[in-house]
Every structure is written in structure tokens, then in C-alpha cells.
Structure prediction request, 445 residues.
Amino acid sequence: MGRRSPPTMLSKRRGNAQICVRVLLLDDQYQTFFIDSKCNGTEFFSIVCNELDLLERDFFGLRYQDATRELFWLEPMQTVKKQLKFAVDADCFLCVKYYVADPVSLREELTRYFFFLQVKRDILQGRIMATQPSAAGLFACILQSEVGDYNEDELQSDYVHEFEFVANQSPDLEDAAEQVHKSLRGLVPSDAEKKFLDKAKWLPLYGVDLHTVKGAAGTALQIGISQVGIAVFQNATRVSFFHWPKINKVQFKRKFFVVQVVIANENKKMSLLKYKFFSSSERGAKELWRCAVEQHCFFRRIVIDPNDDFSRGGGLLRSGSKFRYTGRTEFQVRQSMRAISREQPRFTRVDSRFFRRSLPPALHLPTVAHHWRSQRGLTINDNPHSKALKLSQKKSSSSDNHESLYMRLARPLRKVTGPTATADDRHKLSSSNKSRSEGDERSPG
Prediction:
């Protein structure tokens, strides 16, 4: 399968009231969609999910980036054309929106694979951090999923370096991951991905949606919203956490985002405390509030009634916005999936070796990880391989051969499809990849 076309600006087909939108999928490839100009967010999201044969779609969403580099979820009831007029390009990004506590319990293998790709991307971008022992175990699961069982005769000595798991990963991490990989013999890709998700769900920043704000004194902060509550980070350290049962109200007003928390004083009397945060724009403050509304409704509610006071903005989520949560809850999604019986969808897994290109700027979400990573020695700046790679990418980007460099570095999609792959399949795949590697070495640069 070849590379999909690159992103372009929002365009209209002549003679038809249609717009062209590019969607960056979780395998880092673009898919082009021509949709009606009056198509709203819900309808467009259904079109994307139908194309991917994604049934457990409620856990995902589409995001876009405006001219100020702020990220917004595509609103369900507004037209796509109206929302993307704020975008730098007519791009949407398919992302996991609701990180379930136990992703291994998801019904379909395709859904778990998309979670696997999302968490792998989060770790690479520093949105989720892990200590080196944990990182080595996660890295090894990726190796097992993509190359199969460790075989010294078939794999090159530096095969681990063909994968980029964290930014500027160290040789020590690669060596540790290789040792763990040797112990995972016998796991098919689906089992390796389950093991990866089972490890990743315990990481501190798993499922935390970060937003950059300022405190009352102008201090740079980040607010992390998740299924368990709202956290506040400063200099990569969590300084406050508000559990959902303790939150009395969240609201926004102009550029301010306010969290009202119920606490017990020394006399065991309940009192209210307000925490006010300053966003860079009114749209940013509203988006932060909306993310809190959606996370709370999806994970904390049993059933959503669009006519009750809660979903209309009353009570906990009171604000002046007309936004209403119209989706289903996690409970409703789980209940509906129990009533559905179908064969596991067949799909193609992506081989990410040599896939060391920079993701679009919109995907570099806020992160608390830079200071955290440097304290734990996971950023190794003197890695000669990383320097050589960055230098080659820099040279190629300044020339007209960037596309040809990308095509040489990007491996083709995995040929073995379906829920499982046998040892013979992995052996054939490894042999074919080895042959392609030798061919690349013989071909002129």
C-alpha cells in the first residue's frame, strides 16, 4: 500500500457543494474525504469510522488546530466547514478521546490496536512518561508486535535502533528493550499489544488531556483532565488534584476557567474553594470547559438525557455556553457492545521501522515531560545515531529530494493481516524485510 496524499488546504469540488478534508489517521497516514458542505461533526466522524470499520467509535474523536496552534475537538452539531475555517489547514486528526481504565477489556482487536498506536504516539511525544525499566518493557512489546520472536540469525544486531520509542532514546534503553524482547517469545501481535496496554494503563499520565494555562499570579501551569478528575501541573510536577466527587462546579467566563471544589476544614465543616485559571483565548477557555464536561459525562454518568438540567449545563457543569453533551456514556457503550456479535475485522498493521519523520505540528500536544525526562536520564543528547539521522533529515528537507528520502526510509505496510499471525508468517515477513534492507543498502543514495 502506497503513501496517502499529503494534506492540502480546504477545497471545493467544482459543480458540487462538497469540501475536501484530509484526516491524519493513527497510523500517521492521511485519508482524503469529500463531504457535503453542510455535513456536521457527527456525520463526518461516522463517515471516517465507517471507512475504518471502527465499531467502538465512542472512545475516539477528531481534532483540528487553529491559527494560534490551539487544538479543538470537532463539535458534533456544527458543520465541519464552519469549524475548519479556523484551521491552519483543512486537517483533522483521529485521536483517542476517552482513555478507558482497562484498554485490554475493549471488545474488538481493531479498537485495541488503535489504542496501542495512540499510546505509542503519546510516549514518543512525551505526553506519557515512564521510568527506564517500564519503558524497556513497553518498547519490547512493540518489538514483539512488529518483528515477532527474537531470532539472532534473522535480525540485524542493531534492529532495535530501527524503532523510535522515545525522543532521543539512549543505547541503554535499546539494550534493555532487546533483553526483554527475548523473553516474549510466542506472543502474536495482538497479545503483544494487549501486554503493552496492560503496562501502559498504570503510567501516571495515561489518559490525561493537557491544556496550557496561567495561574492567578501569571505562573505557567498545565491542567490535565482525565476520567478521575482534574490535575494541575507546574514544572512537570503535579501540584493539585481535584477528584470528580469533590468538584462542585466547573465553568468558564471569557478567558477564565474556574473549578469550584468542596473541602472539609478542621471542624469537619464543608466549605467551597474556587480555583481560577487564565487561558490564552476565550475559545481556549471554552474548549477546556467543554473537555471537562465531556470527560465527566462519559465516565461518571450512567445515561445521558438531553432534556435534563444536567446535560443542558446546569449543576456541576453550569456555564453560559449552549453546548450540550449529546454522546453516549461508557456504560451505554459497554452495554451496546454486548448485544453485538460480529467477526473480528481484518486490518493491516503498520511497520514503523525507519519511520523517524516529524509529525505535523498539531500533533505535538502540551506535555509536562521535558523536565521529568531529563531528571530520569531518558534524554540522551549524545546519541551518534540520532545526530546522524537528524542531520540527514535536515539536509534532505532543504533539497528537492525530501519525498524520495521519505519513501526510502518508510517501510511498506505489514503484509500479514487479521487478528493473528503464525510463526511461519512472521518468518516470511522477517526474510522479506531483510531482503529489502539489503536492496536499500545496494541502491545509491
Q: What stands out?
A: The CA atoms of residues 70 and 250 lie 21 Å apart. The longest strand covers residues 256-264. Residues 423-442 form the longest helix (20 residues). Confidence is low (pLDDT under 50) at residues 1-10, 369-445.
